[in-house]
Specification:
- By secondary structure, this protein is α/β, with parallel strands linked by helices.
- It has eleven helices and 15 strands.
Length: 339
């Protein structure tokens, strides 16, 4: 009987189910609970520093609105063709961003994190690399960093090329080589293609549930995320990427009642081409679970998240992005014990 390779656990923005996302305590808790990778999203500051935020609009995740000195920075912009009003990282220097404090992005679902507001700064990508290095001490396997470049086409048009900034950062740290435990992911395709000639690190093509990569939209390419799950498009992805990161509904579909409704052929197709499959995002709250695994009508209460993990591990995924590292690790241990 062949040995089963354990799926990896990626601490999605740390452990945002218990700490403010993308903060030092969040990443440190993910490491403490046994994740294999911590996952930062990176955008750019005005002076070309990679900063860690879910989006470049920071009104919803920081106290910037309370800073009178930045009141005139509130603007409306089109980000990937979508109008957004607020404050944007590219309009602030890193020194200015460091004066802000972080707050909970989903207060209705994660009220336990509301009291943590104003306790943590915005991190830089460099600081996340430091956290991973510190967390690797004394561990048999080092903690990896699984970084997502956000809105690369948008930032490139602002002359803030995320590829250039990322490669320069990795080179400066001496981790732009195949032995480094760094993974680069993107919702777009063009920046990953361009990165292939600049790095031997693992590259992952993200695939959303709907819509299309913005670089396709900008180029008036009719392909969508839906079409990217087909064998012909997966073959193209395999030419520049090492794996795919699909929305979990692309691996196990849901029916009209939001119940799990059977595996798709995506994992098999990807594996046939030598592609890894890392799904997102696994969460404990009833709000995000299939209906048969919800344990109450309270959207913020926890349901049978382990049951969902087991279904996806059975489907053959190679890794999971999780907002609750401890639950993911426990589910993996249970699944491995059954193999």
């Amino acid at each position: 009987m062949s040995q089963v390779s354990p799926p990896i656990v990626i601490g999605h923005r740390g452990v945002p189910g218990h700490r403010l996302e993308h903060t030092r305590p969040s990443y440190e808790l993910a490491i403490e609970q046994g994740c294999d990778y911590i996952e930062p999203d990176v955008v750019a500051s005005k002076d070309g520093v990679l900063v860690v935020r879910h989006e470049n609009e920071i009104g919803g995740t920081t106290d910037v609105a309370e800073h009178k000195e930045f009141a005139d920075r509130k603007v409306m912009k089109f980000v990937d063709g979508v109008p957004r009003t607020g404050w944007f990282t590219e309009d602030f220097t890193i020194a200015e961003l460091k004066t802000l404090r972080v707050r909970e992005r989903l207060p209705q679902l994660r009220p336990q994190n509301i009291a943590l507001a104003r306790t943590e700064q915005i991190l830089t990508f460099d600081e996340v690399l430091d956290i991973a290095e510190e967390g690797s001490r004394g561990r048999p396997n080092p903690v990896g960093v699984y970084v997502e470049t956000k809105h690369p086409t948008y930032f490139s048009r602002l002359r803030l090329d995320l590829n250039d900034l990322l490669i320069a950062n990795l080179e400066r740290r001496g981790v732009n080589h195949s032995g480094a435990k760094i993974v680069i992911q993107s919702m777009e395709t063009g920046n990953l293609r361009a990165l292939r000639d600049r790095t031997s690190l693992t590259l992952i093509q993200l695939i959303d549930r709907k819509g299309a990569p913005y670089d396709f939209i900008a180029a008036r390419d009719p392909r969508t995320y839906r079409s990217m799950r087909k064998r012909a498009e997966l073959t193209k992805i395999a030419a520049y990427a090492d794996g795919i990161g699909p929305n979990k509904s692309r691996v196990i579909r849901r029916d009209v009642r939001a119940r799990l409704a059977g595996q798709t052929k995506l994992v098999g197709r990807a594996h046939d081409l030598g592609l890894l499959v890392h799904i997102w995002t696994m969460r404990n709250e009833n709000n995000f679970l299939p209906t048969e695994l919800r344990l109450s009508r309270d959207k913020a209460a926890y349901g049978d998240a382990v049951g969902e993990y087991l279904a996806f591990f059975d489907a053959g995924v190679d890794g999971v992005f999780s907002d609750f590292t401890q639950t993911a690790v426990q589910a993996r241990e249970l699944w491995l014990s059954r193999q």
